[in-house]
């Protein structure tokens, strides 16, 4: 009996050691971000300078989805996404000829789609964006609209359980584009040979300098597992003040959540409703 039990223990240990990485638990998260109604009685001061969010060290799932939505609009004949010069549009009328895969359709958006496009997938190999048909918050979305609230983003993704150290910061952004103020600086062009001629001074030229555009919602969300699910989020909500200046409000939260429950991150300027669900377990 002891020998049999020992054999079973060795066999089970070997099976666990050879188990694939996909054996870890997987989850999916769905979220809706929305803008709050303007409240004239709000006395909170959002002019406090916050350190800039580090969005470079994030996992970007959305940009490809937004770009795909722009390409589809181009194929459907939406002139906003036509990347050709104006003269070429009259010569070549068929929009499908110029809606290539390598074009940057993101720069054409002034307002991002509510839901970035994603091909439907069902696997546990890598983190991926949910397709629109895989989202379940239609009733929540309709409730927000009936209350006069403006949805900014409705999306979700699937991910494996990971520690706080290993879980990535997922880039989250959407809504309206706000262009940054541009400035011009004078620069002197040196000759092609790299030497400045003694017989004449190089002509200065005006060079436009402009910081990247800001989106209405920009930030990131991290979900890690340590017995429970934990959500760390950092978001900036950008808006125009009554004077026309671009302002921002920071929302940073850390919370423990339960799978299956609907949770709400609240801020006077914006809100996020999200749910984490078990996937295939």
UniProtKB/TrEMBL annotation:
Highest taxon, organism lineage: Bacteria
Leader sequence segment: 1-23
InterPro entries listed in its UniProt record: CsiV
Record keywords, A-Z: Signal
Protein name stated in the entry: Uncharacterized protein
